[in-house]
Amino acid sequence: KDSYGMLDILLKMKARAPVDFELVAVNLDQKQPGFPDHILPAYLKELGVEFHIETQDTYSIVKDKIPEGKTMCSLCSRLRRGILYRVARELKCNKLALGHHRDDILQTFFLNMFFGGKLKGMPPKLVSDNGEFMVIRPLAYVAESDLIRWAAHRQFPIIPCTLCGSQENLQRLQVGNMLREWQKKHPGRIENMFAALQNVVPSHLMDAQLHGFKDLKITGIESDDGDKAFDEEEFKEASLPGIQVISM
Predict the structure, then answer these.
(1) What's the structural domain count of the chain?
(2) Per residue in 45-71, pLDDT tens?
(3) Under 8 Å CB-to-CB from 73, ≥6 apart: which residues?
(4) How do beta strands 125-127 and 134-136 pair?
(5) Helices marked H in the chain — which ranges?
(6) Is 125 contained in some domain?
């Protein structure tokens, strides 16, 4: 649903935006057993979109290297990233548009915090780790629930992932369930957490590289960012922004 939704948006932008760009849809066929490899080419041909299907048997590599019962994400993502970079290079693309949405970004933030000991997410725009491409995430501010509704409305031919999507012990799956449970019990919490990623106060965290505590000096000047000692923080009630989704 995410990739279909992103392609839908990019095609509309290509037709209307005052920016000229070329678009190539790329799919990696990982040779998963039973993968319906005819669905996507037929859909893209019907749309009239230039596309490239890259066929690489990463499924067999992952199944061979990862012990039974262990999650496959780490190796699978590294293989996919390397293949995607190569294909982008061959197609002479300079930007990679990925379908990560708002909920993916929050999940990544909590995964890094819970299991990696880092405050780190996925930004809407960042240079690739090999320095060769610009990675963009056009859906960074879009809620997954909106993409689900849009996919149903547009009747996208969704292809399930049987390689990793069915693994019950995925840490990402567990964090995703946690966020969905919070959203049910505490409406507005997801929106507040996402807003927090855009309102970072380094002086009130503990990363000495971002904020040099050792070199601080008394200024004698009042500042809202200064320490309020034992004052309790005041938090407003969560409120949901009024957002309208209009089908054109």
Answers:
(1) 1
(2) 999 999 999 998 887 888 777 777 666
(3) 164, 170, 172
(4) antiparallel
(5) 2-16, 39-47, 58-65, 73-90, 102-116, 144-154, 171-185, 189-196
(6) yes
178: Cβ contacts below 8 Å, ≥ 6 apart: 110
150 within some domain: yes
Give the pLDDT confidence of 192-220 residue by residue, as tens digits.
999 999 999 898 899 998 888 888 888 89
Residue 239 lies in a domain: no
4 token code pair: 């279909």
Confidence of residue 248 (pLDDT cuts 50, 70, 90): very low
CA gap 81, 79 in Å, rounded: 5
Show Cβ contacts of residue 57 under 8 Å, excluding neighbours closer than 6 positions: 30, 31
Is pLDDT above 60 for 237?
A: no
As a whole number of angstroms, the distance between CA 72 and CA 65 comes to 9
Note whether residue 231 is domain-resident: no
Domain that holds residue 53: 2-200
CATH number at residue 124: 3.40.50.620
Taking the model in full, what pTM does it have? 0.83
